[in-house]
Specification:
This protein is of the alpha+beta class. It folds into 2 domains: about 5-85, Arc Repressor Mutant, subunit A, CATH 1.10.10; about 95-145, Dna Ligase, domain 1 (2-Layer Sandwich). The protein has 6 helices and 5 strands. It is flat. Bound molecules: zinc ion (2 copies). One zinc ion (ZN) binds near residues 101, 139 and 141.
Amino acid sequence: MDSGVRQRIYDFIQQKGLRKTTQRDAIIEAAFNTTEHYTAEELLAMARKIDCSVSRATVYRTLPLLVACGVLKEMDFGKDYKFYDPNYVDHPNHNHLICVDCNKIVEFDDVNIDTLETCISKRLGFSVERKTIRIEATCDELKNKGACGKKKPG
Ligand SMILES: [Zn+2]
Ligand SMILES: [Zn+2]
């Protein structure tokens, strides 16, 4: 985990007048030990591998903290749960492709998209501040086999 990110989080927690706890430490560690996108439940499972006493409530309290701190990005992919992305600090301009069936998420960058956005914005008299592109698709596994490897039964 990047020491700059760690410092930012602990400064933020201190500013909020919150104490350092081993549970929260484990959650923070798990949240940034991966470049994968995860749900709150997935983060809970990852944090419990570090510290088995981590509670679901602490995960749900810690996630908004990390989002408010600006180190974690909350993403709504139109599901009834949110995804969290730890990669925005390093790559603030990346885009996502998500498999609607198995939730596989792939990040991409493309200079053509940047050009297109700049052109469209300029034409309409705007300057790009932020952008998110989300492509909802089905992965090839689904196409070829009729089911995704990652898709959970039920
Ligand atoms: Zn991402
Ligand atoms: Zn899929």
